[in-house]
Write a structure and sequence with these properties.
mainly beta; eleven-stranded antiparallel β-sheet; six-stranded antiparallel β-sheet; disordered N terminus
């Protein structure tokens, strides 16, 4: 019963996050506005060398079939996980089919602390509960909406940090180091930053670029950001003191960014907050970024107020 309940929960999470995550990526481009600051005066501040995500769908037919070699990812404390094959599902997207074996005397749950594709952080929605002495087949899906937003047309490398814990007590059993899976497309892997946009923050190895504002995302309004971490530390980024058109907001945004990695993330502003303040169109945004060490939560930096507009 517990197994079925967890599976239902995972399916519901996948459904919600599929609609929620990067909602701006699913809307028509004509519904999006560019992020600009006063100093940019309507120009974009991102790298002119960044990939053009809008052309991804045009090249789908040219993308080679991705495969992997069957391989044991880890075997520890009686828990063995084997990557069997690369799969592509028309509904859930691409993923890695895993065989999970529990040869311990405890019922355990296997999940991920982090999942990284082509150097981009991807939302983790993988979980599997295995009774002692049993096995399980699960697919570790890669968020198709996030791959699209990052301009990833072909997966070349997957990095996973697995987390194993006791199902009943939630006590940690072990966390793996980074486990890397290289696909048949590894040699062709494109890691060009999807950083076209307006630079909002750049200090101490942390760079944040504002890309677009989508006023028709799943929950309300989505402000799309490109984030890059070359600080030498794993960091977390939150948004504080955010206002839209002069009215305070309570946005949904929190991201963990490993050292040397990139991410594409949305700041979500709920429709109810906009409606309560009579806001029909996003004009001016002000916010602060709170950057901290991911493991200790110690503050690295709090930015000065950052202002930008949607045009």
């Amino acid at each position: 019963m517990r197994k079925k309940t967890k599976l239902v929960a995972v399916v519901l999470c996948l459904s919600v996050f599929g609609c929620m995550a990067l909602g701006s990526g699913s809307s028509d481009s004509s519904e999006k506005k560019d992020i600009v600051t006063s100093k940019d005066a309507g120009t974009t501040g991102g790298s002119t060398e960044s990939k053009d995500n809008s052309s991804a769908s045009d090249n789908e037919a040219d993308v080679a079939e991705v495969t992997i070699e069957e391989q044991v990812l880890f075997e520890q404390e009686g828990i063995k996980v084997t990557a069997q094959e690369y799969v592509a599902d028309s509904i859930w997207g691409d993923g890695i089919k895993l065989l999970l074996e529990n040869n311990s005397d405890k019922t355990v749950t296997v999940g991920c602390n982090a999942l990284i594709v082509n150097n981009y952080m991807i939302s983790d929605l993988f979980v599997s509960e295995i009774v002692a002495g049993k096995k399980d087949n699960e697919v570790m899906y890669l968020s198709s909406s996030e791959l699209k937003a990052a301009g990833i047309e072909s997966v070349g490398q997957i990095e996973a940090y697995f987390h194993v814990y006791e199902s009943d007590s939630y006590d940690n059993i072990f966390d793996t180091d980074c486990i890397t899976i290289k696909t048949s497309e590894y040699a062709n892997m494109d890691t060009t930053p999807a950083d076209a946009g307006t630079e909002l923050y750049n200090a101490d190895g942390i760079r944040i670029v504002g890309k677009t504002v989508d006023e028709n995302s799943f929950w309300g309004t989505a402000i799309l950001l490109y984030c890059e971490n070359n600080s030498g530390k794993n960091v977390g980024i939150n948004v504080d003191e955010m206002s839209i058109n002069g009215f305070m907001m309570e946005p949904l945004f929190s991201t963990t960014l490993y050292d040397g990695k990139m991410s594409i993330d949305d700041i979500t502003v709920f429709s109810s907050d906009l409606e309560e303040n009579g806001i029909e169109s996003i004009e001016d945004v002000e916010l602060k970024f709170h950057i901290y060490e991911a493991e200790t939560y110690d503050t690295i930096a709090d930015s000065e107020p950052i202002t930008f507009s949607a045009k």
